Structure formats: structure tokens, C-alpha cells
């Protein structure tokens, strides 16, 4: 009975370690995904900013060209 209890306690601690590792892994993945999302948003914002800037410049150039 005592050995069974010991095995059970070892299993429970092992289970806790697995759960803890899983939690850490999920946290790690969450942080990576969050950073990647922020980076992607930043890149997307820069690209969109560049695109709108280029669009404005070309639009004004075309507008001036049509006026002349």
C-alpha cells in the first residue's frame, strides 16, 4: 500500500511537471505569436504607409502633369 502511494505521488509530481512544461510552452508560444503579430502589424503599417505615400506623390505628379 505504501509503495503504491509512493508511485502515485511520483506520478502526480511527474504529471505536475508535464503540466508546468505545457504551461511554459504555451506561454512561450503565446509570447512568440504576440511578438510576431506586433512585428507583422508594424511591417504592414510601414508598407501601407509607403504605399499611401507613393500613391499621394504619384497622384500629385499626375495632377500637376494634367494641369499643364
TrEMBL record:
Q: Where are the transmembrane segments?
A: 20-40
Q: Which UniProt keywords apply?
A: Membrane, Transmembrane, Transmembrane helix
Keyword hit for Transmembrane: yes
Protein name as it appears in the record: Membrane protein, putative (Modular protein)
